[in-house]
Write a structure and sequence with these properties.
By secondary structure, the chain is of the alpha+beta class. The protein has helices at about 1-15, 35-40, 50-60, 65-70, 75-105, 140-155, 160-165, 215-230, 245, 355-360, 405-425, 445-460, 465-470, 495-500, 570-585, 590-620, 665; strands at about 110-115, 125, 185-190, 195-200, 205-210, 250-255, 260, 265-270, 275-280, 300-305, 310, 320-325, 345-350, 360-365, 365-380, 390, 470, 475-485, 550-555, 560-570. A hairpin with a 2-residue loop joins β6 (about 250-255) and β7 (about 260).
Length: about 675
């Protein structure tokens, strides 16, 4: 009975009018997959965003993502879990931003470790603080002393002739063509409690005062300016007469229980600190400090020249270091240049230049000073964690010293180069590049104005030298601790000074720095001049005989040394570990979960592009265009339209997907006929 009813319904629908068709909507089954559709594709995309996110939330390994699918029937829970998921994701990437911001600052931490390897004993430089008067400049220095006497008397009404500090006797030596610039005088600045001297440029239009709040510093700076002026005018190849001072500086020297040799020393002259020794050992230190309980029979006393007994070593085992008895008497002293008495000492690395004005310390005469050394070695990281250099490579400042790179040597070389570029001459205390000249008022009348302008910029850190001179990546520094005692004591003073005055070792003097030949034999002792014996007034005892000598002991406090290494706070493995910890904190997932999230982003991007292109194609296809005959295959069962290009009756046409479906399966058949 169902078939006739269906046929009657079709006939009734066909008889409603010519050329019309009315098809009831029927639920069509999905079309069977074709052979091409049944094959496995390389890439498949979801049909909608809802399908994409549902698949991701149901299969993702991140915590909380499954709750979005399980709570699909409860909209409140679904919204709540969605907000929690997005909040956790935002907090995660906010912390990622903070982590990367700290990583890109490249911070470092310092790691301190202790090592017990044997270390080479450092170099020790000692100066007698007795600047001498060069033979060619004695007349000029005498004129400078007289000029200084006039200036000091005008300021303080102090007469040097009464105190005897500055000798007024005629100095021996050849006449000098150098003339003092008497326009540069010491002045008391009006309205200020300062003393200084006035410097002008070559035209006299730009002048300023080099002022000091301390009158002592003002006198020393003014005297040093004229003193450098005199020395710079002397020939550069002159023979300094500091050798005689060096011969009398070291009375005795012992290193590691052995007498020092002349080859261990190099001498040089400093314009302010006088004659200087640099001791370089040839072996590493074998033991630290003084070890108690190791005594040798018979050790401790020796016979000196003349038959007297002298203490050669204490009964305990001596320290593995250097012990020196030094002369601290001042001869040919320039009291306005060097105002301190004693010995200047600096401990430095073997192949480094000693800058005593920056890193040296003074030892008081009449004392025994024991200096204990502790070495620290610093290892710095290079770029991007900081700026350092392994040598002169990468430094745009030509080093004027033929030694290893140090920051201080680079700063001095940079300042000297700026002096040459700005003032057309170099400062006397620093080396010169080939072809340059030292600054002197004979050749450069206004060099003082230029120098002090540049030096003031150096003091205020406005010169580019600091940025051009990085620190070395590997640097050794020495921490010193000292203890002093009176030496010699009041009971042993007379015989010790007498025996020191009678010593006459027959060894040659230590070689000078950069000397081509030197003697390698003999002890580093020198004969004492007759002037060492103190001059007793009217046959009496001297007021302070200890002021002529000093004793210095320098040794390692312990053989252990510390290394300070810079270590990155965040290396690449540590950065990944921190990121993994944050990801696990907020989502409890792994690296593969991150890849799943990345896959979601890629699929969403591809789906967005695909849907956008499809919508654009539909918008273009909605415009009126001629219908191609093949387009009939795309009609739906309920959309039967008349083809205007082919008048007349048209057969009923079914889509290709419904070609094998019976009428019973369709429910109804739609036939389109003309009137």
């Amino acid at each position: 009975m169902e078939a006739p009813a269906q046929a009657g319904a079709v006939a009734q629908a066909a008889g409603e009018g010519p050329g019309t068709c009315k098809c009831p909507q029927a639920q069509l089954p999905p079309p069977p997959p074709t052979e091409e559709e049944s094959r496995e594709r390389l890439l498949e995309l979801h049909g909608s965003f809802q399908e994409l996110f549902t698949f991701f939330c149901a299969n993702a390994t991140m915590h909380g993502a499954t709750r979005l699918v399980c709570s699909s029937q409860n909209h409140l829970k679904r919204v709540s879990w969605g907000l929690l998921f997005l909040g956790a994701l935002g907090a995660l990437y906010w912390q990622f931003g903070l982590l990367f911001e700290q990583y890109w600052r490249y911070p470092v931490i310092l790691t301190v470790s202790v090592h017990s390897d044997q270390r080479l004993f450092p170099s020790v430089s000692l100066c007698d603080l007795n600047p001498h008067r060069p033979r060619l400049a004695r007349r000029s220095l005498q004129a400078l002393d007289e000029f200084a006497r006039e200036n000091i008397y005008a300021l303080y009404k102090f007469n040097f002739s009464e105190s005897g500090d500055v000798s007024g006797a005629q100095a021996p030596g050849p006449e000098s063509a150098f003339q003092l610039d008497r326009t540069i005088r010491l002045r008391r600045l009006s309205g200020q409690n300062e003393v200084g001297f006035r410097l002008c440029n070559s035209t006299g239009g730009d002048c300023f005062y080099r002022a000091y709040s301390s009158g002592v510093k003002a006198v020393r700076a003014w005297y040093l300016f004229h003193y450098v002026n005199i020395l710079a005018a002397l020939p550069t190849d002159r023979e300094d007469s500091h050798h005689s001072h060096g011969d009398h500086f070291v009375f005795s020297c012992r290193y590691d229980s052995q007498d020092c040799r002349a080859r261990h020393f190099q001498t040089f002259h400093h314009p302010v600190y006088g004659s200087c020794y640099t001791f370089n050992s040839e072996s590493a230190a074998q033991r630290p400090g003084i070890t108690h309980g190791q005594c040798r029979p018979g050790a401790g006393w020796g016979q000196a020249a003349g038959g007297a007994l002298l203490p050669t070593r204490p009964h305990p085992q001596p320290p593995a270091g250097i012990s020196l008895v030094l002369r601290a008497e001042q001869q040919d002293h320039l009291p306005l240049l060097s105002t301190e008495a004693g010995i200047k000492v600096m401990v430095h690395k073997r192949d480094h230049i000693p800058f005593l004005e920056h890193q040296g310390f003074s030892i008081r005469p009449g004392t025994e000073t024991t200096i204990r050394i502790r070495e620290d070695e610093v290892h710095r990281l290079g770029s991007p964690y900081g700026r350092c250099t392994d040598g002169v490579q990468g430094v745009d400042v030509p080093l004027l010293y033929n030694t290893s790179y140090t920051m201080q040597a680079c700063l001095v070389s940079c300042f000297q180069q700026l002096m040459l570029d700005t003032c057309s001459c170099g400062y006397y205390f620093y080396p010169l590049p080939p072809g340059a000249q030292y600054c002197s008022s004979v050749r450069h009348p206004a060099w003082g104005h230029c120098f002090y302008r540049l030096y003031r910029e150096l003091e205020t850190h406005r010169l580019p030298c600091t940025s051009r001179c990085p620190r070395p990546c590997r640097e050794s520094s020495y921490k010193l601790s000292a203890g002093t005692s009176r030496w010699p004591s009041s009971k042993s003073r007379d015989w010790i000074l007498a025996e020191l005055g009678k010593q006459r070792p027959g060894s040659p003097s230590p070689r000078r720095r950069h000397s081509s030949s030197s003697s390698s034999a003999g002890q580093a002792r020198a004969p004492l001049p007759a002037s060492f014996t103190p001059r007793y007034p009217q046959g009496g005892a001297p007021p302070n005989p200890r002021s002529n000598v000093a004793k210095v002991n320098i040794f390692y406090q312990e053989l252990n040394y510390r290394t300070v290494d810079e270590t990155p706070v965040y290396s690449v493995p540590q950065l990944l570990s921190a990121m993994g910890g944050l990801w696990s904190l907020w989502f409890g997932s792994s690296v593969l979960s991150v890849l799943e999230l990345l896959e979601l982003l890629l699929d969403a991007t591809a789906l967005t592009l695909l849907l956008g292109c499809r919508r654009l194609c539909r918008a273009q296809g909605s415009q009126p265009t001629a219908v191609h005959p093949k387009a009939e295959a795309g009609r739906s069962p309920g959309d039967c339209r008349r083809d205007v290009r082919h008048p007349g009756a048209q057969p009923a046409v079914l889509p290709r997907a419904l070609a094998g479906v019976s009428a019973e399966e369709l429910g109804q058949v739609c036939v389109c006929q003309d009137s």
